[in-house]
TrEMBL record:
Organism: Aspergillus lucknowensis
Source taxon at top rank: Eukaryota
Family: Belongs to the membrane magnesium transporter (TC 1.A.67) family.
Membrane topology field: Multi-pass membrane protein
Keywords linked to the UniProt accession: Membrane, Signal, Transmembrane, Transmembrane helix
Pfam families referenced in this protein's UniProt entry, alphabetically: MMgT
Keyword Magnesium attached: no
Protein's recorded name: Magnesium transporter
Compartment(s) of residence: Endomembrane system
């Protein structure tokens, strides 16, 4: 994060804390007053301050984020398969017991096809 983005984020967090404190104080002040429900709602300036502070915090975080890297799922999947699937983060989901092992069946089928192409049943 750059210095400017940290300052923007800090400023937004201070504004958000102030909006939260103002909302709490407003609630405490009007909790004992028995007025209509419309007067007990938060004032518009507190709501606007909270929304602006969220926008400022989001802007600071986005400005401080690293550049996005391009994602190529097919390249990632090829690399995982070349390594034997050891670095696959979804390995636990793919190896569910009691389910049909697709990779093993593909290998069996490939071996069967390769060994049986010459000795196929002739009609």
């Amino acid at each position: 994060m750059s210095f400017i983005s940290r300052i923007i984020t800090l400023f937004g967090l201070v504004l958000l804390a102030h909006a939260g404190y103002s909302a709490h104080e407003h609630t405490v002040l009007y909790s004992n007053v028995h007025l209509s429900s419309a007067s007990s709602a938060l004032p518009h300036d507190i709501v606007i301050e909270a929304l602006v502070s969220l926008l400022v915090v989001s802007t600071g975080l986005v400005l401080g984020a690293e550049k996005l890297k391009p994602v190529s799922w097919s390249e990632w999947a090829k690399e995982v398969e070349r390594q034997g699937g050891a670095s696959n983060p979804y390995l636990r989901l793919e190896e569910r017991y009691g389910f049909w092992d697709v990779r093993a069946k593909r290998k069996e089928f490939t071996d069967w096809i390769q060994s049986g192409t010459d000795s196929s049943v002739k009609a």
